[in-house]
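thread: overnight batch results

M.L. [08:02]
morning all. the overnight job finished for the chain we discussed friday. pasting input first so we're all looking at the same thing
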Amino acid sequence: MASKVTVHTFQQMKQKGEKIAMLTCYDYSMAKLLDELEVEGILVGDSLGMTLLGYDHTLPVTLAEMAHHTRSVHRARPKGLLIADMPYLSYELDPKEAARNAGTLVKEAGAEAVKLEGGLEVASAVKEILKIHIPVMGHLGLTPQSIHCLGGYRMQGRDEKTAEKILTDAKVLEGSGAFAVVLEGIPSELAREVTRKISIPTIGIGAGPYCDGQVLVLNDLLGLYHGSSPSFAKRYADLRGQAKKAIQSYIQEVKSGAFPSPKEVVG
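M.L. [08:03]
and the structure it wrote out:
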């Protein structure tokens, strides 16, 4: 990946049938690592509420917190497209306020696009944000900011009515100008239908293999999250377990006097 990834890159990849790899990221060090590995999309997700800040869910996350972490990732100057989640109540009530808040994430924090949850109900916000030339990614299906209405983290689109709404909302987002849409926690056949029927890329998370790309929470992938991860979040490593062993070894060596040894003593 020699050149900077843009929203047009996403579109070209869909047209060519090339899968898009996205991951969440919340800090400079991990952003540098993801850049070295040429991840096409970097999402500063409001999942940082649970993974970093200790919240029970994403709802308490503030715009200031999102800006802080987006700024940290931006400093790594990643070639992957840098997308920031718009937190709860930063876009739902007033389209113009949504545009101002999106502008904060771009102008002050360095985001190159923003993501918001919902379909028809946020179409006016999508259009208003686009008026100030900020690309927008949608998010449908299991939308974490709606967990109280959804009854928790439950798969969506299982019945005909809700499946039809997801498909309709995807078309609404496409028509409103969104450059891509995340499909979370929906049946794989529904994700395949949505992917076929809209021209913008679909990014799946717990939505099966037929989307144009996939995204995972980095802490789930690395086995760093202390809580339970969803079943669709494949764990590729157990870094939390390795970290615990390393820290335990350090504590034991401090207690025994083995650390610092002569080679760790300066002067």
